[in-house]
Amino acid sequence: AGVVAPAPIRRLEEAVVNRIAAGEVIQRPASALKELLENSLDAGATSIGITVKDGGVKLIQIVDNGHGIRYEDLPLLCERHTTSKLREFEDLETISTLGFRGEALASITFVAHLSVTTMTEGQAHGYKATYKDGQMEGDARPCAAVKGTQITVENLFYNVAARRKAFKNLSEEYGRILDVVSRYAVHKTGVSFSCKKHGDSRADVHTVGSSSRTDTIRAVYGPGVARELIAISASEDDPSGTTFKMDGLISSANYSSKRSIMVLFINDRLVECGALRKAIELVYATILPKASKPFIYMSINLPPEHVDVNVHPTKREVSFLNQESLVDIIQQAVEAKLLESNNSRTFSTQT
Ligand code: ADP
Ligand code: MG
């Protein structure tokens, strides 16, 4: 084999760089939806409606009643690294919003067509603007609106042929979207969510902000789960203040399912934690073999400095300080709850 001469190193065009970066943040329709949903929650919305066509590839539309976007901010809205949420790097330690890096909307505009209609409190009318490759196209135009924001994303990956072709099973993509909405709906009681296919009159997920968490779980995951939930909590106190607090709802011995579901929020962020999931499933498998595929909802609060929020937007797996001991404490709490409920069940069926 001969020696290959090195190819010259060239600087990529900005448009190419942006499209590559965008494909990393927005991997599929559900990742776009998650970013839009988190923006609506960050805007203080109490009602969020989603409409989806062709698994989100053709259309994702989200309507919220949040605080809206100021007219003067519309030109910056979809530029990369523009945000109303973060100023200094140090703010990351205490940040309470879900977003902060100002990358999501920009990314979407590099791989899809995006338009926004928005109105802030006390305005006589709203504005509509469309965006492409990070830039607003023309001027924002006045239009009739109500307070809040509507964002429409069309033809996702229209300019990334390989990615577009990867989404053959559109109902599976829709399923992933429903999964994100369902999880947020369970955690964010106080917010009404709906998600439906374009053209359908009936929503596939529909929750009411005034409902209890158990009622929300019933609406989303069905009455079979909702009727078998046990409340659980655990916390650890430290002389310097509470180190952690966990509240949740877990399925009882009477619940059996083909697959387990774990809805986990840490400091109000939707995450996955394989170590915690395994530890809990082990408890079920050991003491309730017939109910070994549980439903678990857990919300864990840790001091913000114990969790690094600055992981890649698509990396849902988290790790945190003192993870091992925390997983231990939660595992013991689950075990105690299950034994307690199992004993009372045996007792009540015997009498
Ligand atoms: P980030 O959420 O990290 O700030 P995004 O690209 O997701 O970045 O959004 C950019 C900015 O657009 C946000 O900081 C916010 O000011 C504004 N924004 C986006 N979506 C909404 C919305 N639904 N309601 C109000 N403001 C929004
Ligand atoms: Mg965001």
Q: How are the SSEs ordered, and which strands pair?
A:
Layout lengths: L13 H12 L3 H14 L4 E7 L5 E6 L39 H8 L1 E7 L6 E7 L2 E9 L4 E7 L6 H6 L3 H18 L4 E6 L7 E3 L5 H9 L1 H4 L2 E10 L2 E11 L9 E6 L2 E3 L2 H14 L7 E7 L21 H28 L1
Parallel strand pairs: 1-7, 11-13
Antiparallel strand pairs: 1-2, 2-6, 3-4, 3-6, 4-5, 7-8, 9-10, 10-13, 11-12
Helix pairs in contact: 1-3, 2-5, 5-6, 8-9
Subcellular location: Nucleus
GO molecular function: ATP binding; ATP hydrolysis activity; ATP-dependent DNA damage sensor activity; mismatched DNA binding
Protein name: DNA mismatch repair protein S5 domain-containing protein
**End-to-end span in angstroms?**
84 Å
User: Could you name the ranges where pLDDT drops below 50 across 5 or more consecutive residues?
Assistant: none
Rg of Cα set? 23 Å
- CATH architectural label of the largest domain: 2-Layer Sandwich
Q: Give the overall silhouette.
A: globular
Task: Kindly give the count of domains.
Answer: 2
| Name of the CATH class of the largest domain | Alpha Beta
Strand arrangement, major sheet? 5-4-3-6-2-1-7-8
Structural class: alpha+beta
| Small molecules (ligands, ions, cofactors) in the structure | adenosine-5'-diphosphate, magnesium ion
CATH level-3 fold name of the largest domain: Heat Shock Protein 90
- Number of distinct helices: 9
SSE sequence, one letter per element: HHEEHEEEEHHEEHHEEEEHEH
Averaged pLDDT: 93
The largest sheet is: 8 strands, mixed
- What portion of residues belong to β-strands? 25-35%
Estimated helix fraction: 25-40%
CATH superfamily placement of the largest domain: Histidine kinase-like ATPase, C-terminal domain
Domain DNA mismatch repair protein S5: 217-339
Subcellular location: Nucleus
Protein name: DNA mismatch repair protein S5 domain-containing protein
Family: Belongs to the DNA mismatch repair MutL/HexB family.
